[in-house]
Amino acid sequence: MTAAPILARTLKYTVTISRGENSGKVYSFEKSVVTIGRGSENDIVLSEDVKVSRSHLALKISHGQVLAKNISEKNFVLIDGDKYDEKAIDEKAQIQLGGTILQLKIDVPPPAVVLSAAPSASPANLRLASASDAIPMLGNSATTSPSTDFRPMPPPLNKNSFSYATDTQKSDSRVTFYGIILILGACAAWFVMRTNATSSSSAQGDGVPLISKNGVVRTEADVMRKIEESANKVLELRKQQENSAQNTVQYQAAQEHYIKGFRDYRQKQYARAIQSFQAALSFYPQHELARKYYVQAQRKFDESIDQSMSLGRKYYKKQNFQMCQSSFAQVMIMLKDTSKPKYREAKQMYDECSLRLEGRY
User: Fold this and answer.
1) What is the rounded CA–CA span in Å between residue 92 and residue 103?
2) Element holding 15 (H helix, E strand)
3) What is the pLDDT along the chain (361 residues), one digit of tens a residue?
4) Partners of 107 in the beta sheet?
5) Which residue of 132, 140, 270, 323 sits 20 to 30 Å from the alpha carbon of 111, by its own alpha carbon?
6) Are strands 33-37 and 44-45 parallel, antiparallel or unpaired?
7) Is residue 5 helix, strand or coil?
8) Cα separation values, 188 from 105, 120, 194, 200, Å
């Protein structure tokens, strides 16, 4: 005759939604595993919370505690504001997944009765098992009162008891041996299946297979498709942001200055174009066209200054002082800033050309 438990300890608890979909709703459970997610197959369904995965959280009973385990591959679980993959929780803990917050309440159950029989020549001893220790209640030769501090009664030591313990140890050893063999066989079968899947993918020309953290086989082609999809999403989001920004007052004002500056740019009025583009960028710094033509107008303006300076020197060498005077005057009008070196050079050459022109008459 072998010892076997007749009634196991159970744990009852309730889950209350304190914030989010169905706020205030209470769920009661008395099972080892409870799942929570958007999918209809879960024990608690949060179908309207878009930040919750289809299968997001599992509550498991282990050693008289409730463990919260994140079973989502994309989203996370917060317990009291900190991110955990798995954690034992108490009644004060707040569990957040997506936009939903859950509160757990554990109902302490009465101690469960465990009946066991030990092989002995005497009648069976009945023992009451509590959550912490076993208290003997019935024996074959003693009676007890509720106020007495009892201790477990050791089974009688005899030849049959030692034989029973030896047989039990041998049985446990065989179970352990066969369990190891079964696990090794499962690992070998998984390795063969993965090798076949990898060979099949390579034969189809999908590229070198890659293994992700969750054991899913992916190829280089799959990775490239993911990258392309992400790039398309980025472009789409940027386009949406630009469209939303174009409805603002700042963008409309910047657009008016940009159009004015572009008109001056086409008419080669680069100085005025630069001012308009600067005004557009002051209203809306992200205006790409205004920034682009501002740089081009600045470059064209500098080229015009250099061209007028070069032309003035050419006329000076040919002693055409009237045209020399006109070229350097044009430089001073365009620059306007007397502190710039090119302006001072043009002013000096303008004065010299003017004096030489007066000396002729």
Assistant:
1) 8
2) strand 12-19
3) 444 343 345 678 899 999 988 889 999 998 899 999 999 999 999 999 999 999 999 999 988 889 999 999 999 999 998 999 999 998 888 999 999 999 988 876 545 444 444 444 444 443 444 444 443 443 343 344 444 444 455 555 454 444 444 555 656 677 788 888 889 888 888 877 776 655 555 444 444 555 555 666 678 888 888 898 888 888 888 777 776 667 788 888 999 999 999 999 999 999 999 999 999 999 999 899 999 999 999 999 999 999 999 999 999 999 999 999 999 999 999 998 899 999 999 999 999 999 988 876 4
4) 12
5) 140
6) parallel
7) coil
8) 44, 45, 10, 19
Element (H, E) at 129: strand 127-129
Give the number of residues written for the chain.
361
Q: Which of 50, 49, 66, 46 is nearest to 58 (CA)?
A: 66
- Residue of 70, 68, 67, 34 whose CA lies nearest to 52: 70
Q: Which residues pair with 14 in a beta bridge?
A: 28, 105
Q: What is the DSSP string of 36-78?
A: EESSTTSSEE-TT-TTS-SS-EEEEEETTEEEEEE--SS---E
Tokens 């009676």, residue located: 143
Backbone angles phi, psi at 80, to 5 degrees: 55, 35
Phi, psi of 358 (to 5 degrees): -70, -30
Nearest to 275 by CA among 302, 288, 287, 293: 293
**How far is the CA of 103 from the CAs of 23, 33, 58, in angstroms?**
11, 17, 14
What's the one-letter identity of residue 39? G
Buried b / exposed e along 171-199 (16+ C-beta atoms within 10 A):
eeeeeeeeeeeeeeeeeeeeeeeeeeebe
Q: Say if CB 95 and CB 78 are below 8 A apart.
A: yes
Residue type, 242: E
For residue 68, the cross-strand partners are 59, 87
CB 297 within 8 A of CB 333: no
14 neighbors 33 (Cβ within 8 angstroms): no
Confidence at residue 342, expressed as pLDDT on a 0 to 100 scale: 92
